[in-house]
Amino acid sequence: MKSILICGVGGQGTLLASRVLGDVFLNEGFDVKVSEIHGMSQRGGSVTTYVKYGEKVYSPLIDKGEADYILAFEISEAARALPYLKKGGKIISADSEIPSMPVITGAVEYPADLPKQIRDLGVELTVIPALELAKKAGNPKALNTVLIGALSTLFENGAKWLDAVVKIVPPKVKDVNIKAFEFGAEYK
After folding, report:
1. Interatomic CA distance for residues 130 and 15, integer angstroms
2. What are the pLDDT digits (tens) for 92-112?
3. C-beta neighbour count of 73 within 10 angstroms
4. Which of 6, 41, 115, 167 has minimal Cβ neighbours within 10 Å of its Cβ?
5. Residue 119: domain span
């Protein structure tokens, strides 16, 4: 059984990403379970989604030390999710920094140089300018699709992931999402 933890901030498209991944793995013949954990998502709070797939999946929840992959839509969310990553797991994260309410009010400072801190722990981390690539594709909301494209390169069936994106995104944004997926898949 494999698991992917998707984390971000409300409104970034984590739930759509989980639907795409669920569709990909269902079409590969796996049993798939998806669980969504909403924080204060309507107010920019943390949102976490679990995607588990395999021959037989009994629970959608991912315990600490169990995630094969973390797909983070914001770098501090990647850091927050670190306890869930299994040894040898991989993180793909947007380089976005979205200040939380305590940071906005001045109660705490946004952590400095999170990518370095994460890598210093021995974690394999790929940081992508996902928002920049989504804007280049034509819509900043396609950040999620950029990250899905990047994640797809870690899988043998990655080429089939674009089919799931096209199937799930609204038709009016299909072309933008195709470009966004390709930018993510091509990013080095």
Report:
1. 17
2. 999 988 877 777 888 888 888
3. 27
4. 167
5. 2-186
Indicate the number of domains in the chain. Answer: 1
Q: From CA 104, how far away is CA 119, in angstroms rounded?
A: 26
Nearest to 21, CA basis, from 134, 131, 155, 139: 155
CATH of the domain at 124: 3.40.920.10
The pTM assigned to this predicted structure is: 0.92
- Asked if residue 100 lies in contact with residue 76, where contact means CB atoms within 8 angstroms, the answer is yes
- Concatenate the DSSP letters of all residues of the chain into one string: -EEEEEEEETTSSHHHHHHHHHHHHHHTT-EEEEEEEESSGGGT-EEEEEEEEES--------TT-EEEEEESSHHHHHHHGGGEEEEEEEEEE------HHHHTTSSPPPTTHHHHHHHTT-EEEEE-HHHHHHHHT-GGGHHHHHHHHHHTTSTTGGGHHHHHHHHS-GGGHHHHHHHHHHHHH--
- Dihedral of the CA atoms 87, 88, 92, 97 (nearest 10)? 40
